[in-house]
Amino acid sequence: MEKIYDVMIIGAGPAGLAAGTYAGRSRLDTLIIEQAKDGGQIVITAEIENYPGGIEGETGPSLVERMSKQASGFGAQKVKDTIVDVELEGEIKHLKGLNGDYYGKTVIIATGANPRPIGCPGEKELIGKGVSYCATCDAAFFEDFQIFVVGGGDSAVEEALYLAKFGRKVTIIHRRDELRAAKSIQEKAFANEKIDFLWDSVVVELSGDGILDTMVVENVKTKERTTIKADEEDGTFGVFVFIGFTPHAQLFEGKLDMENGYILTDDDMKTSIPGVFAAGDVRKKSLRQVITAAADGAIAATQAERYIEG
Ligand code: NAP
After folding, report:
1. Which ligand 1 atom is at minimum distance from the Cα of 151?
2. 168 and 198: one domain?
3. Same domain for 48 and 73
């Protein structure tokens, strides 16, 4: 007879870990299934200054480590697996993983979102060879090099500030002539002497023989194209892409109500199937932050408990 969990949580980012903490603390038999490392996107965040009560110098990995320990401390079990199919209807939900099958009374989907690529020629081939989506992971490779950051939101500008500690110059390439990022973050970037801006511009091509050394940028207003070449001495430069995310929810297409790839929930994180909840960046919401992900997780776990109690 297969074990039947009270709560199965898919994803161990802030939403999944908060759900695990709340479910575990409620003495629910809880399983967190994660395919990679705990933390989701937050582990690629260099600095978190706006998590309430956060300690100075808090980073994504440090916050996640504590969240993860906390969930385990309350008894949430963890398994490393990739869920490839789901049966969500009925009283017992069934998650099919590459390594095994999992059964439970409720499911909390906290699978998050992936960084969105530019989609231009050369980008895919040059990932890890000049193209990156993670400043924390790759900034050190570009010590004293020229760095370009694509995007104009909070992520792009915050990561540009971080990258400016490494590169000799950071150029933010944004498709409009004003940033989307919060004013307080913008102010820091405008005040940083190492950061400049390429407005109204998009990257249309990246190239290089084994390593990125050329980028073509198009002005969206004039359609003029400019080719940027790496300094001869450097031989390369970094292109860091922060232009939003794609929700990690393909598995649920046709099974749950969704919009633009995001799972639809009500205020209690309930999806269109009873006993199935979604929390964090994977659901349609107005603010995607660690704090809202954690809050979603807490609500989802509490509602899962109520659902089980009938
Ligand atoms: P975002 O807010 O959606 O911003 C994406 C940026 O990329 C926008 O400036 C957008 O331009 C640009 N963009 C989108 N598609 C593009 C394309 N195909 N080519 C070129 N540029 C493109 O995404 P985010 O910055 O990753 O932030 C996601 C969420 O996390 C937001 O809610 C954000 O507030 C939050 N966040 C918060 C913090 C913080 O508070 N510390 C840090 C990081 C993220 P347009 O402006 O023209 O649309």
Report:
1. 7
2. yes
3. yes
Q: Which of 194, 219, 241 is the last residue of a domain?
A: 241
Q: Could you tell me the distance, in angstroms and rounded to a whole number, from the CA of residue 244 to the centre of ligand 1? A: 5
Which residue segment(s) compose the domain that 29 sits in? 4-115+245-309
Q: What is the pLDDT of residue 58?
A: 87
> pTM for this structure?
0.75
What is the CA(245)–ligand 1 centre distance, in A? 8
The count of structural domains within the chain is 2
103/83 Cα distance (integer angstroms): 12
- Residue 134: CB within 6 Å of ligand 1? no
Q: Is the dihedral of CA 295, 298, 301, 303 positive or negative?
A: negative
112 burial level (CB within 10 Å; 0-12, 13-18, 19+): buried
Pairing of strands 238-241, 245-247: unpaired
Which element (helix H / strand E) includes 238? strand 238-241
Q: Which of residues 241, 259, 294 is at a domain's end?
A: 241
Query: Token pair 């079990």 is at which residue?
Result: 77
What is the tens place of the pLDDT at every residue in 50-81? 889 888 888 888 999 999 999 999 999 999 99
Q: Which atom of ligand 1 is found nearest the CA of 242?
A: 26
- 164 and 266 together in one domain: no
CB-ligand 1 contact for 50 (6 Å cutoff): yes
Question: Is the CB of residue 218 below 6 angstroms from any atom belonging to ligand 1?
Answer: no
Closest ligand 1 atom to residue 174 Cα is 21
pLDDT digits (tens, 9 = 90+) for 132-167: 998 877 899 999 999 999 999 999 999 999 999 999
| CA 253 to centroid of ligand 1, rounded, Å | 24
Q: What is the pLDDT of residue 251?
A: 96
Domain shared by 286 and 209, yes or no: no
